[in-house]
Write a structure and sequence with these properties.
This protein is of the alpha/beta class and 209 residues long. The chain contains eight helices and eight strands; from the N terminus they run αβββαβααβαβααβαβ. Strand 1 and strand 2 form a beta hairpin. The longest helix is centred in the middle third of the chain and has 19 residues. The radius of gyration is 18 Å and the shape is globular.
């Protein structure tokens, strides 16, 4: 069963890392249970609703709590007063955030050359310094979806990096407007939308940042 599943996913993504081995046992009422020993998956969190980065950071907290190492690479972000950056001092070396952006918001219609350079630096760093040299159990590529959507990075280069990602790494891609290529390569896709949202409320410290 494991080999069949791996072959299907290999055809889909060219990333044959789903199963290490299969274990079987018996669950309730004597029903035989087959447990696939998996490695990593690709998760996309996209949509126009709020909470995509927040959701990924919740997974990060859970992962650190289980003794895993977590790396967050933030595209288009450079503010150091945000909670996910400040918490590094309390969580220690199991949780690290690398930022590649300025403290200003990116003009989505006319991004600067600096925005382009920083985004490509982030992609190269994630590939060469993290995935190739020291892969963690969890890698969060924060706002990579939007960075690709507005042309800061080449989507094909990001997809190639994801295909070559080492075994055992779960990768979260966050941000609005996830490119179709990201959707296609992902194992999980979650689209966040606002059913109700209070307007005209400024971002709150400890909740929104």
């Amino acid at each position: 069963m494991c080999s069949e599943t791996s072959r299907f996913l290999t055809q889909k993504r060219s990333r044959a890392w789903l199963c290490d081995k299969v274990e079987s046992g018996f669950g309730a009422a004597g029903v035989k249970v087959i447990i696939m020993k998996k490695t990593g998956f690709i998760h996309v969190l996209t949509g126009n609703g709020g909470g995509k980065t927040t959701s990924a950071l919740g997974v990060a907290m859970r992962s650190v709590g289980q003794g895993h190492r977590v790396v967050v690479v933030q595209f288009m972000k450079g503010r150091t007063d945000i909670g996910e950056v400040k918490i590094q001092k309390k969580l220690g070396g199991d949780y690290t955030v690398y930022q590649f952006g300025t403290k200003k918001f990116v003009n989505l219609k006319k991004p600067s050359q600096q925005d382009v350079e920083l985004a490509n630096e982030a992609l190269g760093f994630a590939r060469e310094e993290i995935l190739e040299k020291s892969p963690p159990e969890l890698l969060i590529l924060d706002e990579i979806n939007l960075a690709a959507a507005i042309g800061l990075i080449e989507t094909d280069k990001a997809v190639e990096m994801l295909r070559k990602a080492p075994r055992g790494v779960d990768i979260y891609l966050t941000g609005r407007r996830a490119p179709k290529a990201f959707i296609n390569i992902a194992d999980y896709v979650t689209v966040v939308e606002d059913k109700k949202r209070v307007r005209l409320v400024s971002a709150r410290r400890g909740i929104d940042y």
